[in-house]
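Reviewers of the previous submission asked for a worked example of the structure-prediction workflow described in the proposal, so we include one complete record here. The input consisted solely of the amino acid sequence. No template or homolog information was supplied to the procedure at any stage.
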Amino acid sequence: MKVLLVEPYHGGSHGAWAEGYRRHSEHTVNLISLPARFWKWRMHGAFLTLAEQAARRIDEDGPVDVILASSMMDVAAFAGAMRNVAPGVPIALYLHESQFTYPLSPADRVDLTYGMQNWASVATADLVIFNSHHHRDEFRREARLLLNGFPDAKHVHLIDPTIDASVVIPVGVETDALARRVRTPALPPLVVWNHRWEHDKGPDELLAIAEGLVASEVPFTMAMCGEVFVSVPPTYGEVVDHFGDRLVHHGWLERDAYEELLASAAVVLSTAHHEFFGIGIVEGIAAGAHAVLPNRLVYPERIADLGGDATRSLYDDPAHAVELILHALVTPEEPRLRAATHRYDWTVVAPTLDAALSRVV
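From that input alone, the workflow returned the following structure tokens.
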């Protein structure tokens, strides 16, 4: 079967997902994409540029059986632009994220446009795939709140049938390769925070945890590895200063160095206020680190899926996080939790996604 994978934001986790599926699928997967920048413009304008790319690709390589689109695009508009290029070809939508609850930065204001685009994409796709049950539940709830705010013809009656027809398939991660790596625990023990340096990843909470860890006087080191953009919330600078010489790395790491760092970590930490799957956390657990995560968003689902102990992993406030980290620094992680991440490996996920696309065809 021929799959045309359409990725409007090819970078970071989106790019890793697209390339991972292309490598591991049993179908023939052709990828068209745009660079990972200007996400708001991608939501507005990517549909037309990618429809042009799709027309050229189909002209060169022949018809496709199914189109798999990623979430940072107006799929309803894309379907319209493709009506003469690939008539009757079903479009599946993979939802990495949705914009209903994205935490606003100080520079942003409330804009219903993007949530409405997400709803229109979901309502018109032939198959909707969410990356977690948390995401699907949140989408159902927030779509109802959004649509009920309009004056008439609110679409609300379409929400439950649409969401009930969707499926949940996790993001594929190279967990087995990480789990095979030999552990090389750092001394003093290492805590890794592996997120984008943006406001939705909880810099204020991270600063409070940094203050608590430093005040404890327990020996540890820290690594803050993730993509750093031109505009970074100033709180991250305070976090770097607070860790001081305990900070063994901050900023981006190439893949091999990143995996080596994870293999030496005692703890993988999140402070996120917006997360629908948690690739970095899954990678950390697969590498053998103990996860310390906020008791919100997708994290309770992730720990439950892996059979972990919520009382050891989920914190309610920064002081509780510090307590869990300090305990984890002297308590080895259970090997069964590391092995359980196999359920997210591409060798498991790709066949599931293959089968879902075959069914919609």
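The first strand starts at residue 2 and ends at 10. We consider this example representative of the routine output the project will generate in years two and three.
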